[in-house]
Input
Amino acid sequence: MRRFPLYFQLQMVKQTHQRFWRYGPLVLWILFISFASTSEFSAGNTSAILRPLLLWLFPNISESRLAAIHLLTRKAGHFTEYAVLAFLARRAFITSSHAFLQRYWFQLALLLVVIYGLLDEFHQRFVPSRTASIYDSAIDIVGGLTVLLIFKFIGRIAASVKSAAKPERR
Output
């Protein structure tokens, strides 16, 4: 077995540590989304938590309002789940040591959001207590795209402010 000098061993440990902190949160969030696609997060299970809470907060709430709030909460969950996924993908890609990932972070993060959003709903087709919906995939994609566009917009503003602040050389 070939041994590397101590300096190179430390560099490899440092690189591994950096990769873990760069991609670890993204991988953990993908695992969370996968768990949220199981029967544990079915409408029946989320209703069992949300309904008593809403009845405690608003004792006179109607059944139709309860159902509407439950639906909106679940759809907001889809949007938020994939907004966080996009945020973590952007974070991982822009700090990558690979120039390709840094340069195309927007496209790659959006591709990840789209593919995983579609796969998530496809998986739910096979979970008896869940239903698959292309509309949920659309909400997922819009959630991720919203965050990515916000960061793209902020990046452009920052770049224009930075270029405006530079003195002209003659």
Summary: The longest helix spans residues 63-94.
